Amino acid sequence: MRAAGTRLLTRAQAEGMARTDIDGTDLFALARSLAWLSDQPSLAPRADHLFDVVVSAIVTSAGSRDVERAP
């Protein structure tokens, strides 16, 4: 999962869709933090907001129009 995420991040960075000051380790840490947050019942009402915050920490403004949330 980490290697695949790193490849996707590298490709997004090359296309100007993701920040270039993060790497696969950072991406994996952010994904783990989202997983941890999903296990916190007190944060459930803020899950969508927190997801958006994490995505905005990765995706550049050029790429934000291409980000779609899964239903």
From TrEMBL:
State the Pfam families in the record: TetR_C_43 (PF21597)
Give residue ranges for domain Transcriptional regulator SbtR-like C-terminal.
1-56
Q: What name appears for this protein in its UniProt entry?
A: Transcriptional regulator SbtR-like C-terminal domain-containing protein
- Organism encoding this protein: Streptomyces brasiliensis
